[in-house]
Sequence to fold (278 residues):
Amino acid sequence: MKQITVALDGLNFSACAVKYAALLASSAKTNLTGIFLDDVVNHNYSIYDLLDDEGVSENKFKALNEKEEEKRKGSVKEFEKICRQANIKCLVRHDRNVALQELLKESIYTDLIILDRKETFFQSGKKNPGAFLKGFLADSECPVFIVPASFRAFDKLIFLYDGSPPSVRAVKAFGYLLNTFCHLPLEVVTVKQSADYPDLSGKYLMREWIKKYFAHAVYTTLSGDSESTIVKYVKTQKNDTLFILGARHRGTLSYWFRESMADVLIQKVQAPLFVVRY
Fold:
């Protein structure tokens, strides 16, 4: 892998996202690009913070903008500091247009994008994942690495396999892009809802492929409703596990899920996710 990008909000800096990004870049022996999505309409202050007895105060407006600019500069310095500590080279880029549109454009020209699961870029709403992350996962043109609230280096991989070609695409993308982690133990987890559902007729071909890329792989088949069974199972895993899975494109029906399993895991599990859209 040659191009790794971490998406950051200079006003709400995610050191955790940068630490995971630095880990991946260091392992791949490549540089790290930090894209600061400084959407010009996004601010930490509200219109009420600008008011005085005479209405909107130009002095308050100027002072608050200067304060935010200093915070953005501090975030860049913190990003560069983490990269120095990880002994990797970094590149900083700023985008001041609409954050979601800019990041989707970035996804066309990079191998992997790292995002904090709580990143909103000031879009309203308290749901997790928020509108920004859901919108990005639905249309991203590259795999996405979603980080939890705190950093822990992962030492185990779990691949959620539903028998579909798109789910296999996720583990193939991981094997191609993050092959320096293929020495870690891999568990392939499938939920069997009935004798012939999902269709696992390609499982032997999939196993042959996995043998060529992963040093240690085991296979676990669970029974029951797919969504609740997977959530219950993954909650038994430690937070130093990385989950590999596919996420639906807008309007695409999943073999298993009405809601994207990526969305469910973002809500339920405090562990990193490697997600490939299909």
Summary: The domain at 4-147 is CATH 3.40.50.620 (Rossmann fold). The CA atoms of residues 80 and 137 lie 27 Å apart. The chain has two domains: 4-147, 156-277.
